[in-house]
Amino acid sequence: MRIAILDDYQNAARSLADWDSLPGEATFFTDFLGHDDDAVCRALQDFDVIVAMRERTPFTGARLRNLPNLKLLVTTGMRNASIDLDATRELGIAVCGTAGSPTAAAEHTWALILAAARRLDVELFSASRPRPVSQPWQQTLGTGLSGKTLGVYGLGNLGSQVARIGQAFGMRVIAHSQNLTTERAAEAGVEWVDQDGLFAESDVLTIHLKLSERTTKVVGERQLALMKPGSILVNTSRSPMIDEDALVAALGTGAPVLAALDVFDVEPLPAGNRLLQTPGVIATPHVGYVTEDQFRIFYTGAVEDIAAWAAGAPVNVLN
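^ thats the sequence. predicted structure below, dont judge the formating
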């Protein structure tokens, strides 16, 4: 049995799980295989088992049909929108998932909120990012959060965690989503508002929706035009929820003044991407879920999935 572990960017997978316990040979890919279908399929055509790190490498029907030896596809986490589950059923490929950390993404959301509020993108320096001699000792006036309004777009598991932290900072917390009720918001100690109110009243607005046809470009020109001058927009969810053209235009007006983003339409983000050239963008490379604790859960779960499947008793089956 040949096993491919994909997109191990930090070269961490080998040390975080007992791959040697499996009845097969594991190969670790630390570089992104690219966006070209032919190149991806050439690299993976000999493998019986593939372990995918979240949605870094999509498995479309076209790709799956060109991987004749693939029998088991393991995804980290229990949901992966980039795997064509219908095609895996058609082709007889088992798909299994793993557990994950329930807190990593919420913690990173707050890392971005605080970085934006205190302008760490400008003020931060270290041994690896020394302060230029010409740079003033202090350049910006930070934004305090106590007494400000935090808007949470999507009050599910992650959104609720983010809301509780906002409350701890002394923020007024409001929330909206299509299915959120006043009663459900009140149970979380949060004030329900309609969509227009969410955008118009938030000093910090953070998105925690599930990507679907309904939520694609749910943040567009009309919604952004409602935001306050000097407000902050945060997205650690999925990039297609924000209309990129509208965001770039809105940042040029100062409402919002900053967009703190961890997700992008194309990843890894190409050099010279226009978002990186847009004043007001603070970007991290989709690391909301990238913690040692999280990866240990992911990779240990992947080994357990493979062992169970090899023994004829698959677990955590998604298809």
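The first strand starts at residue 2 and ends at 5.
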